[in-house]
């Protein structure tokens, strides 16, 4: 069968996919072979629903000569790269009749492909026609056994690596593995142990601590909003000259950050002004643009060195904010049951409609008189 008469490609099971009703598009002489540069019948198919079209890359002659898949160019028998297969033959001391020495000359490549095609058409048993001529240099049983062991180990190691990376629940629209799978393998245990999610605003004994850890921010919160909130809070008890912020660090991907002051006294004043829903049993809370943000004493720590670590830390912050909100509601409920209705929590009421504070004469009871 020549390249022009080819009706079925030489494709491995992995490239074909699991769909038993696979449909293929055949384009006669539709592309050039990546190896010998001759034109061949191009085949396209959709391996999975919603995935990109797979296609053949090499012609049938080159694939038959190397015993490889026309699409992924892996060995058809063991589904490993051809370089690994050829190296296994050399280690076992056997001649590899699939190994082909490619020439850099395009004309020579095409001539070799035509020569192998002619040998295939001239003869050989049906079960030998997929292979090129030649026999192994060494036919000892020990060499064959060694080769089989090496190839099986290569196959097992490749399957193990593929299984560890594959997650069918997180495939993207192209059928490939989603980059979000990296989150599952990302370990942020060391980062979490250094962040005080259950800390409080009790003055730390270490006087060198002049910074706060804040968490629960979103993309709307900016450094300027945080600085404006702090200045408004401290303006009630301090002069503007004393309010000196060293830095504000916000990581929106991790949904947390740090507030650093130059002086410890200013930081202590802020800790006294911030609301404490559960006293010393949990972090404080401040509302910036009606967004609740938790705050606690802490030195500046690392919030992750990669985007996957920061994203996973953001998931932890979101979960921690829900837990703290539930604890605050329970604490407020207990105070209400005990008859303590006083609360120092910040409350925000929406502004009234325009003119709600104006007093018109028509609103008086004796307007007609």
What this model shows, in words?
- Helix 3 (82-92) packs antiparallel against helix 5.
- The protein folds into 2 domains: 13-164, no CATH class; 189-337, 2-Layer Sandwich (Alpha-Beta Plaits).
- 22% of the residues are buried.
- The chain is α+β, with helices and mostly antiparallel strands and 369 residues long.
- The chain has helices at residues 13-16, 60-66, 82-92, 106-122, 141-165, 181-184, 189-193, 223-234, 264-273, 307-337, and strands spanning 24-32, 39-45, 54-55, 211-215, 245-251, 256-261, 284-288, 291-297.
- Strands 5-6-4-8-7 form a 5-stranded antiparallel β-sheet.
- Helix content is 34%, strand content 13%.
- The model is unreliable at 125-138 and 164-179 (pLDDT under 50).
- It is built from 10 helices and 8 strands.
- The chain is elongated.
- Residues 122-141, 156-182, 328-369 are annotated as: Disordered.
- Involved in pre-mRNA splicing. Facilitates the cooperative formation of U2/U6 helix II in association with stem II in the spliceosome. Binds to RNA.
- Keywords: RNA-binding.
- GO terms for molecular function: pre-mRNA binding; U6 snRNA binding.
- This is Pre-mRNA-splicing factor SLT11.
Topology (elements, then pairings):
Layout: H1 13-16, E1 24-32, E2 39-45, E3 54-55, H2 60-66, H3 82-92, H4 106-122, H5 141-165, H6 181-184, H7 189-193, E4 211-215, H8 223-234, E5 245-251, E6 256-261, H9 264-273, E7 284-288, E8 291-297, H10 307-337
Helix pairs in contact: 3-5
């Amino acid at each position: 069968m020549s390249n022009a008469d080819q009706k079925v490609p030489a494709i491995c099971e992995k490239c074909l996919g699991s769909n038993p009703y696979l449909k293929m598009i055949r384009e006669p002489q539709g592309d050039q072979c990546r190896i010998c540069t001759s034109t061949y019948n191009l085949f396209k198919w959709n391996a999975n629903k919603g995935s990109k079209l797979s296609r053949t890359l090499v012609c049938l002659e080159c694939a038959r000569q190397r015993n490889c898949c026309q699409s992924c160019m892996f060995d058809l028998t063991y589904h490993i790269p051809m370089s690994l297969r050829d190296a296994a033959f050399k280690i076992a001391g056997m001649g590899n009749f699939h190994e082909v020495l490619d020439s850099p000359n395009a004309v020579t490549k095409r001539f070799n492909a035509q020569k192998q095609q002619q040998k295939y058409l001239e003869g050989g048993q049906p079960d030998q026609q997929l292979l090129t001529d030649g026999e192994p240099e060494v036919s000892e049983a020990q060499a064959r056994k060694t080769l089989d062991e090496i190839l099986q180990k290569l196959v097992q190691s490749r399957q193990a690596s593929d299984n560890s990376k594959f997650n069918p629940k997180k495939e993207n629209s192209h059928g490939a593995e989603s980059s979000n799978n990296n989150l599952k393998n990302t370990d942020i245990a060391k980062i979490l142990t250094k962040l005080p999610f259950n800390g409080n605003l009790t003055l730390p004994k270490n006087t060198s601590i002049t910074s706060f850890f804040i968490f629960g921010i979103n993309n709307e919160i900016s450094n300027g909003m945080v600085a404006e909130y702090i200045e408004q809070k401290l303006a009630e008890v301090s002069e503007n000259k004393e309010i000196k912020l060293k830095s504000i660090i916000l990581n929106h991907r991790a949904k947390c950050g740090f507030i650093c002051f130059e002086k410890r006294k200013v930081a202590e004043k802020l800790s006294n002004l911030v609301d404490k829903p559960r006293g010393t049993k949990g972090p404080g809370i401040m509302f910036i643009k009606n967004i609740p943000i938790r705050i606690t004493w802490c030195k500046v720590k690392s919030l992750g060195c990669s985007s996957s670590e920061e994203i996973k830390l953001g998931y932890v912050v979101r979960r921690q904010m829900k837990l703290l909100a539930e604890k605050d509601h329970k604490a407020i409920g207990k105070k209400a049951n005990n008859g303590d209705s006083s609360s120092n929590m910040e409350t925000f009421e929406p502004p009234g409609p325009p003119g709600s504070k104006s007093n018109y004469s028509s609103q008086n009871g004796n307007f007609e008189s």
